Amino acid sequence: MTMNIRTYKREQIEEGILEARRKSKESGEAVRLLFSPVEISSKNFEETCLIFSRLNKEDYDTVVIIDTHTGSSANKLPMPSFKSIHTTLGEISANDRLRNEFADEDDDFFVDDEAFDDEVSLYDQLMMLQTVLTGFDLLFIQITDENSFIVKELAFAIEEILRSKNVLVVFCCELDSEYVQELKKVKNLVDSGNESGLMHYLNSGDSHVRGVGSFVAGLLVAKKWGLHIHFSALAQNNVKYQNLIGGYAVMKPQPVYG
């Protein structure tokens, strides 16, 4: 029987994270972005732990979570108005100041609850985040329209507003393991810097990615910030992956001279 992460106890998640750290080599790289599955369950728990195990407890002041919820609101990029949110692992405060900063950035960002419900990926992500991090607050942004204009607008705002902040950005998206060729195609577009090809991929309707708007926004931000993306499914660690695009993006440490 498949169990959703929301039913897990803290000890179960901690055990999964510890096991993932035993399998992974310490890189010393600072993680700026995560690509995490929309739904975290017993089916993909092991591979998801490999992603979140890259984080350290006090690395971030704020976590920004991006989730796709198409057709749920007239506003294209709504941000729920909650002051704090609860899971079984405790309470997390919203970063109201940052939420207002995004709302002031462009006409498509709104503080709006119409698209917010119990089905959003936020709660799944928080169960992992509350286990591996301490002392962070939260901003949750939803994408209700995945056209390229909206996705590029979101990526631009993230790039500009969050560039110098001590923030982790989590993009909720997943691609089933049978679509290996699709991952290779997207990776080639990213590696070659083919942004127009990436936009065509987004607009074509041919993608099998759940949360493709969130996925492409993350790819655009990683490129603008000069980050290196690591998809876990491309690593050699003897894990059978359910989600091909789970991973993280890092800024390598700069050499110190003198």
Summary, kept brief:
It contains 8 helices and 10 strands.
List keywords for this structure.
35% helix; 258 residues; single chain; globular; alpha/beta; 6-stranded mixed β-sheet; two-stranded parallel ribbon
Structure report:
Helices cover 35% and strands 19% of the residues. By secondary structure, it is of the alpha/beta class. The strands form 3 sheets. The chain has a 6-stranded mixed β-sheet with strand order 7-2-8-1-10-9, with helices on both faces. A two-stranded parallel sheet has the order 3-6. It has a two-stranded antiparallel sheet with strand order 4-5. Helix 1 crosses helix 4, helix 5 packs across helix 8 and helix 7 packs antiparallel against helix 8. The longest helix has 15 residues. It is globular. The protein starts with 9 loop residues before the first helix and ends in a 7-residue tail after the last strand.
